[in-house]
Design goal:
The protein has 123 residues and is mainly β. 0% of the residues lie in helices and 50% in strands. It contains no helices and 11 strands. Strands 2, 4, 5, 6, 9, 10 and 11 form a 7-stranded mixed β-sheet that branches. It is globular, with a radius of gyration of 13 Å. The mean pLDDT is 95.
Length: 123
């Protein structure tokens, strides 16, 4: 089964930027992939979504306008670049994948998840 591993999280000051990477254990040419996040005491929420080819990307939530999602299928990776980070962006960021041509945006529609990477933004 495909496995996902996130990296790139860490501690950053408000206004700073971070680049997250999600690497898959196998090729993902037919998988839509996404980034979600979950802050303490809150539900998991979507951040960015990218279709299998990388031609279509969507964004949602508070990071919309401050992040960019991309993918490199040859490297079996997707990326999330975040800028102008705020303390309220502090959360565990998860990579997710689901096989198919559609581009789901709901947590329940994704079947594969990574373990997450912690992002902490200090004020």
């Amino acid at each position: 089964q495909l496995q996902l591993a996130e990296s790139g999280g860490g501690l950053v000051q408000a206004g700073g930027s971070l680049n997250l990477t999600c690497t898959a254990s196998d090729s993902t040419p037919r998988y839509a992939m996404a980034w979600f996040r979950q802050a303490p005491g809150k539900d998991r929420e979507g951040v960015a979504y990218i279709n299998w080819s990388g031609a279509t990307a969507q964004y949602s939530g508070a990071l919309n306008g401050r992040c960019t999602v991309s993918r490199d299928n040859d490297k079996r990776a997707i990326y999330l670049r975040m800028i102008d980070l705020k303390p309220e962006d502090t959360a565990i960021y998860y990579c997710a994948a689901v096989r198919g041509a559609a581009l789901p945006t709901k947590v329940a529609e994704y079947t594969l998840w990574g373990q997450g990477t912690q992002v902490t933004v200090s004020s």
